[in-house]
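Q: What does the assembly look like in three dimensions?
Context provided by user:
Components: two
Sequences:
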Amino acid sequence: MSVHKITLIAALGATLAFGTLYASAQEKYGFGRSVDADEVARYDGDIHTDGTGLPAGSGNVALGAEIFEIQCALCHGENLEGVRAMGAGSMHEGRRDIELLPYATSLFDFIRRAMPLTDPGTLSNDEAYGLVAFLLNETGVVDDANLTLDAASLAAIKMPNRPNFIIDPASRFTAEDLKDN
Amino acid sequence: MKTDLINKPTRRHFMQAGVASSAALLSSTALAQETTLIPSRGPGDTIDGSVTYASRSPFVKDGKMRGSANGLSGGGITPLQNSQGMVTPSGLHFEVHHSGVPEIDPSEHKLLIHGLVGDDKIFTMEDLMRFPSVSHFHFLECAGNGMGEWMGPRGQTVQQTHGLTSCSQWTGVSLKVLLNELGVRGDAKWLLAEGDDGARMTRSIPMWKAMDDAYLAYAQNGEFLRPEQGFPLRLIVPGFEGNMNVKWIRRLEVGDKPWWTHHEVTEYADPRPDDKIRAYSFVMEARSVITSPSAGMKLNGPGFYEISGLGWSGAGTVSKVEVSTDGGNTWQNANLQAPVLPKCHTRFTMPWNWDGKETTIMSRTTDDTGYTQPTYDQMYKLQGPIGMMHNNAIQNWHIAQDGEITNVRS
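A: Here is the predicted structure of the complete assembly.
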């Protein structure tokens, strides 16, 4: 462990040094095309942990259950236990992963952009909200069969596993690198 | 042997030219079987050298082992048992996909960089290739390389135990140059890198790393990237887990916090024995493995063998690789083949005379930060029984008296 401490000190020094580089002046090459906020919005679909990026719309557990049956159960299993024949990923990308997540925003973000596997990006915002409501109720994270989620209520959910995520010094990252996260 | 050649397309090509008959081919075949003075190129075999893009000899058969249950997620594993030197051929570089391999026309591909920068900009491939270029040899290793070994020795070859690491020379544009071009705000701490695959794979990258040595690569081993390696553009984050080297990259968002995306918090974080989860374990720590002789091979009696393998470290440069041929009781420094580069595969070799007795051989590497590759016992204390990612423990190969080599734990 003492070796890691030495590395951490070195890494902190390096971080401070790079910190000065952020502001360094550089001759501009002038390549690329400047874009406005509207054009950025056409590319930018990710969701931040504070809820920034969550779209309008809402969905409840009942809608989510309906979509799950049609779009999800084939790979993830009726009880979120996975289906071995659909690959190793499906075995944990269900109940286990939902219980692991530190933020509910990550669940909405992933479902809306990457699922269903064969046709990603085709769920409506309402369907994605409904699926998150269904999954949180199904796994007991939020014990409410009438749960309805929208941008504000989803961002407010506290995932029970959040405090268990730690920054281990063995990761070679400094407290400075990782604070406020 | 030679009779196989008359069935090859080269014969048809030759005959169309009207220079020989099949009778002549057959008679030369008979001669070839009687004497070794006849050159190995028979009449009718290719002489014009006009191949547009050369292939391997049909006698070379080794390839990636493929695994995918649904055809969309999965990948291919590098055959390290036949590897030579430190570079992996592009066609044998391991691949892991989470939502298929997109086919992208480079003339239509664009990269958006936005967020906490002075100017949001879109770059075409032509724009990116106008910037000053950098070329580096770097290894890429999947964080799950060897996860199947965590519960006990399972892989029957080094391809199965360690084949999710590969090494290439990558060419592209430094991320620092691009970010400085846009002007990064003082509160910028993290970047989100997003790929253009079906899953829009996203990973959070710390800003210090982006400004240190990360780059966007458009070429691998002297040619444009292969589709499964991210054509036309991928991120290279030297020494960090493979998944962060986002392929088919389409967007970089500069922010003040990490995004905690699905993949970085579920699959790539490390559960510990105390039920805590180690986040941001990005660095692929020092590791090595003997690639030859290795499991699945058989030594042909006592005598001289060269022990050969690979060492690497995501934290720095390999400073030494030690090899034990007596089950870990004594260790000797192996030769490191030049060049020895940071965050890169390093080929090590050691001459060895096998006395024909049962033994176990292994290697361990130390990098220039002073970190030495751990044993499984040390790893279990750090990560616990289900912490399967980032397994860099020492690998043992058992050699039986008859020369059979198998994968063992101790």
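Follow-up: The domain at 46-163 of chain A is CATH 1.10.760.10 (Cytochrome Bc1 Complex; Chain D, domain 2).
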